[in-house]
């Protein structure tokens, strides 16, 4: 079952870490660099990948939603102060 087969990894300080499996029907939402832009870099967009398992089968479904390219993503101005200037 998919709950027993990991595959998602994230990169931190040059090392790839496995994301532990959670349960059946888990939904993972990765907002990526959108939140990094909106929070002025406070929240970082994760560098991630999915790897295969040569011994166990897994079903993964990737669905992407992309904002309208004609619209801009704006910074949340309430997150700015003297110590946190706009980038």
Automatic annotation (TrEMBL):
Transmembrane segments: none annotated. Pfam families: 2OG-FeII_Oxy. Keywords: Iron, Metal-binding. GO terms for molecular function: metal ion binding. The keyword Iron applies. Residues 3-65 form the Isopenicillin N synthase-like Fe(2+) 2OG dioxygenase domain. InterPro entries: IPNS-like_FE2OG_OXY (IPR044861), IPNS-like_sf (IPR027443), Plant_2OG-oxidoreductases (IPR050295). Gene3D superfamilies: B-lactam Antibiotic, Isopenicillin N Synthase, Chain. This is Isopenicillin N synthase-like Fe(2+) 2OG dioxygenase domain-containing protein. It comes from Triticum urartu. The lineage of its organism: Eukaryota, Viridiplantae, Streptophyta, Embryophyta, Tracheophyta.
């Amino acid at each position: 079952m998919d709950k027993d087969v990991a595959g998602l990894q994230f990169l931190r300080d040059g090392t790839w870490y496995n994301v532990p499996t959670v349960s059946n029907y888990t939904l993972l939402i990765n907002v990526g660099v959108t939140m990094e832009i909106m929070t002025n870099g406070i929240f970082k967009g994760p560098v991630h990948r999915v790897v295969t398992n040569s011994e166990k089968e897994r079903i993964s479904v990737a669905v992407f939603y992309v904002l309208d390219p004609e619209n801009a993503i704006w910074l949340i101005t309430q997150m700015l102060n003297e110590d946190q200037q706009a980038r």
